Amino acid sequence: MSKEEKPESMSLYPLGTAAAPEPELLCIFGTGDLGRSLGQRLLQSGYKVVYGSRRPHSCGPVPQGAQVMSHTAAAQSASVVFICIQREHYGFLEQLAPQLKRKVLVDVSNNLRKNLYPEANAEYLQRLTPEAYVVKAFNTLSAWALQNGPSDSNRQVYLCGNSTEAKEAVTEIATRLGFSVQDRGSLSAARELEDFPLQLFPLWRLPLRLAFGLTAFFFFYLLTRDVIYTYATQKKDISFRIMVSLANKVFPIVSLIMLALCYLPGVIAAVFQLYRGTKYRRFPDWLDRWMLCRKQLGLLALAFAFLHVLYTLIIPIRYYVRYKIAASTIAKMKENQTSELDTTIAWRSDSYYSMGILGFGLYVLLGITSLPSVSNALSWREFSFIQSKLGYLTLFFCTFHTYLYGWDMFLRSSYYKWYTPPGYMLSLLVPSVVLVLKLLLLLPCVDRSLTRIRQGWERTEPQDDSQKSLIT
Amino acid sequence: MSKEEKPESMSLYPLGTAAAPEPELLCIFGTGDLGRSLGQRLLQSGYKVVYGSRRPHSCGPVPQGAQVMSHTAAAQSASVVFICIQREHYGFLEQLAPQLKRKVLVDVSNNLRKNLYPEANAEYLQRLTPEAYVVKAFNTLSAWALQNGPSDSNRQVYLCGNSTEAKEAVTEIATRLGFSVQDRGSLSAARELEDFPLQLFPLWRLPLRLAFGLTAFFFFYLLTRDVIYTYATQKKDISFRIMVSLANKVFPIVSLIMLALCYLPGVIAAVFQLYRGTKYRRFPDWLDRWMLCRKQLGLLALAFAFLHVLYTLIIPIRYYVRYKIAASTIAKMKENQTSELDTTIAWRSDSYYSMGILGFGLYVLLGITSLPSVSNALSWREFSFIQSKLGYLTLFFCTFHTYLYGWDMFLRSSYYKWYTPPGYMLSLLVPSVVLVLKLLLLLPCVDRSLTRIRQGWERTEPQDDSQKSLIT
Amino acid sequence: MSKEEKPESMSLYPLGTAAAPEPELLCIFGTGDLGRSLGQRLLQSGYKVVYGSRRPHSCGPVPQGAQVMSHTAAAQSASVVFICIQREHYGFLEQLAPQLKRKVLVDVSNNLRKNLYPEANAEYLQRLTPEAYVVKAFNTLSAWALQNGPSDSNRQVYLCGNSTEAKEAVTEIATRLGFSVQDRGSLSAARELEDFPLQLFPLWRLPLRLAFGLTAFFFFYLLTRDVIYTYATQKKDISFRIMVSLANKVFPIVSLIMLALCYLPGVIAAVFQLYRGTKYRRFPDWLDRWMLCRKQLGLLALAFAFLHVLYTLIIPIRYYVRYKIAASTIAKMKENQTSELDTTIAWRSDSYYSMGILGFGLYVLLGITSLPSVSNALSWREFSFIQSKLGYLTLFFCTFHTYLYGWDMFLRSSYYKWYTPPGYMLSLLVPSVVLVLKLLLLLPCVDRSLTRIRQGWERTEPQDDSQKSLIT
């Protein structure tokens, strides 16, 4: 640094002193992972850090540049104290209450599972130290994110607390660490914040259960129709087909149904709105829940479609398929018959694959635009164009692909083993319904009513009966 | 909360009162989607919300915890009023102007299409209520993003307005809701902000048109050469080949051309700079526009390459291909000839596939690094390394893949049906030019000049003529 | 702001004046790319911009709306000066020092490579202008990001400087441009900030070297075993197999080993912790470094797996494979033997493919959740669930896939050409070790100890010997 060499300018201009601004001192209780990560980060951002420890001389390692003191001394030295210890060890803080009086206590703790304690950790801390200003913050970040800063990981810090000044102090620190802060209100929100890091895919539960249920159902349905039926009627063991052939029937069926289930609630909602003539009445709860997990439904459907694609593409390298093809070539050779190329079959087979590929391509596009960073870069209109227009096109391609697969199969009674329809027929039910309903909604007269309802803020008047009569 | 029970400590320590800080009151006009979503979010973030409605007792549902009043009463109760109604209904605000005097009016409205009105909604609002401080904000967010907060969706809020204080007040609210604010200046920017949510892939238009044009051209070109030629000369209907064989010729051709078009403007720009001996003169407009949509060109090219890969991989399961293979095996068998394995063909065929796979792999890598979140995590040098160095490598692999496909086809006259060259030859034109130009630019002497021009801030001097002579 | 100065008009219409608030004036030195991009952005955000140039009348183009002055005049007109010139041309600033006294100088410069100069550019600038307040900022952004704003590119601006006030002024500007600011402390951090844009995948180096090393080793190992061995013993040239067959052996082997190397350090760390009975002692440096690049290892492994999948899927369209299949069909035909379908082989082959597909599917899922925007949207627990639980499942599927590939190959001596084991056996070593160790760690007694160590903040006591004895 150059300024040390120019002592004269120092008296005139505050720069000389500004060269080494006295960094703010922060205190951390707890030298665990979290405490150390946080301390390291604070030191990097130019703060001075003091650790409070029960045994200052034999505590775990602390980041270079940080001091270790007794809890009492550490608490007295700083105005902000980060509590990075586990709730079970909060007890001693009650005795420290006098030292913590009017200090900002930042509760960073998390629990191992939900509802472990009757009150949130931060509320418990506030009860122990009633005269301190407790702020719940930073708990939703991993120690990793704390240590490495926000550039690669979540930059959002949630905080709550009863004292606005205390929250502002913590906001300032978080902002300086590079995080962006979202205030969640008073300390009573602490429980919600403490539950957040414990949640495990809450929105994925329903779609996952549905996917498992459908997979299990179709697996046993097709197992019965294919493997068990063959064994029962022809005493032939074709159980090896479970691994690929059966899987490659179950996956596309589940995928198509789930894709259709993505778009069904939207259609149902439109019907509700048309029927009621307003968009201001709440949808039933089940419809709301369903609509909230559409993205998850769609992504699971995409995963199943991805597996279907891979299972289809490995078909020609399977031992069984190679065996069959060789056997059929030999058989043809022996019979000495020259079968003609059937152009209709060629058209059908190629269209079938083409529809599948285009459908899958659009599917992947939908998946990519669901990535948070991509959907953020899209304007609202762009996002709805892709997710709605292209979404229905995807559904159409995939449904058409399945119809082409079936072709005239539904006419031949031999396919109705044990009076059950083939799996693909069952899979066509929901998508066909969705597409037909969507087509009806696109009829000019219906579409006009619907658009007016969706734009119209004032369509709650009783004279709207005329509207309802359009569709009832 | 435990502190309410300890009233004695209240006088000493301000915590008791801080426990229930009086939340700020905000007013929302309009109980539509936007109004409700915004209100819900504001309530969650600890604000008090009052709705203004024409008929306070029979308006649509409002979020729990919010009050509904007449417009006048609501406007008087708060200093910030969110206008969540459609522009057509702004009229009544003129009568409310006295109540809205010196209030901050946040115009959240959007229009259904661009240029619907001569002035921006926010400017119209300002004209109706000249004594209010109008701020345009939040309109670029969807109701969904407003309701669910910024964690999963766009966190950027654009605002503009003439009063700095008013903008600061709105900034504070937006920040508390977790958004980050970008000030776009005075209210005259409102039109731009109102157009933003209406835009539909403006940067994608040119590349999409190009892709459609190229696809259409090559489709008809190849249709003529393959299907119509065969029908005209041999009276054989091979139209079923449209679905897969033809598509799988059109897609890779368009993909390769568009990938080359991604890198052509960079090469042209370098030639311009070399010729002019400076980088400070603007490029022609067409080159600027072209360079701006390179990312979109590349992503479309990747989409076509993806389809090409899928179309290629399903080849062996096509009915037509299986028929052909069986027929050829039977023919070989009958002729009783044992053809030897041709090592050259094996080398060529395997190299062809290998180049294609490596090219596609790099292609996908380029696509992944185009994702906003990935490119953000890269330093500038890393990004340009991938997009430039790896980009040219991709182009080289894909071009080489196409040359291997052609092999000695260009020598045989039978491939020039109706005197037209095969499609793959046309596709090789642009990439070959780009690669040759790039190689020339990489020659040490040219590269040195170019690097100096790109670094040199001062190469505008007239004595730079020596430089120009290098390449002219 | 204008309102303070016009108290009278406030009661009437303050808006007319507020409509044109006097924008702040900023000065930029340098009219190069960076200077122009920055100026354009500042103008867009409502600042007035003045450029300082040596030759104000013949300098390069500046954005519309900006003025050009001499350096002296420009410096005097504004309180913040952006230095957008290259370090080599800083010299003249020493003479400008009086004009720059007490100004905020924002050093935006970067160098062409690391360690080009003994001191950071910003420190050099501070030495030249000791009475100015130098702030290093914006240098980590590309000119592109500066010009187009933060919505599509990195929104993080790093800054450092000795004067807190100066940093606050720059923070305000950066925030108004839409960036979020991270303060990195005093000016001594400038070197770190200047090195940042020059870094080229520092975390990828070790994994990339490893990948290249493994690829080279296995390539030559398999080249020797397959091609050279065949040539040496049978005088048959099968070198064409290098392009696909050999590549498709090398890629999965390297992929599996690297995937296992992703999970090995975690297992080793657990063993360390169990042995030491604490988690508070630092791991050895090599383990720390290893653990830091696990993500990169995994992504490279995924890239190799992706290539393996593509190489596998093109197998049936290869000339060599078609030739072989036709030859084998003809041979079977001639021998007139009807081989039976071997159900065991069918089971094994199908399971082999199925495991591979499921493993690859999970692999892709792991890759997707590594995308910054996706991992940000996950809670800590969700992320560790996917990366750990699903990661081990992926490793298991892929290892099992490889075991199924090998099947009983290890029993047949003909596979041990020149006494070397087949490549797939070598690839199974590391994953098998990792899976066995992981299984041991999952044994209830070991798992309980480990969980306690990882939760227990206080397990450093000497009485923990009992703990250690559990596993030693």
Automatic annotation (TrEMBL), chains A, B, C:
Subcellular locations according to the entry:
Endosome membrane
Task: Specify the protein's topology with respect to the membrane.
Answer: Multi-pass membrane protein
The segment(s) forming the Ferric oxidoreductase domain are 253-386
Q: Which reaction does it catalyse?
A: 2 Cu(+) + NADP(+) + H(+) = 2 Cu(2+) + NADPH; 2 Fe(2+) + NADP(+) + H(+) = 2 Fe(3+) + NADPH
Full protein name? Metalloreductase STEAP4-like
According to the entry, every stretch annotated as the Pyrroline-5-carboxylate reductase catalytic N-terminal domain falls at: 27-111
Indicate the principal place this protein occupies in or around the cell.
membrane
Task: Give the transmembrane ranges.
Answer: 206-223, 250-275, 296-317, 357-378, 390-406, 426-446
